[in-house]
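ingest -> validate -> predict -> emit
validate: passed (alphabet ok, no gaps, 103 aa)
predict: started
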Amino acid sequence: MGRFGETLIQSAREAEAIARGEMAPAREIPIEEIDVAAIRKRLNLSQDRFARRFGLSPATVRDWEQKRRRPDRIATALLRVIDHAPETVARALEDAPSPPSRD
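emit:
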């Protein structure tokens, strides 16, 4: 077995020890939860209107709310700003130039 295979086996052993509580992980990355539906409902918007207003895909908003997908870090940051200053975000997006056409 090569060096790579040995490293994989050692990693698997460490993962098992961590799962059993015999070893502490080297680091933990907290998963930030954001309640997209609560933000949208506070703004009294349908999923489609929320998506349109903030430049999001309606399908993505549905997936987030139904926990099929999670917002990535950038989307989470945008959602936090929307939660705190929705009118500012909407105004900024209204003033943004449209992306060039792909025609």
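The CA atoms of residues 11 and 30 lie 21 Å apart.
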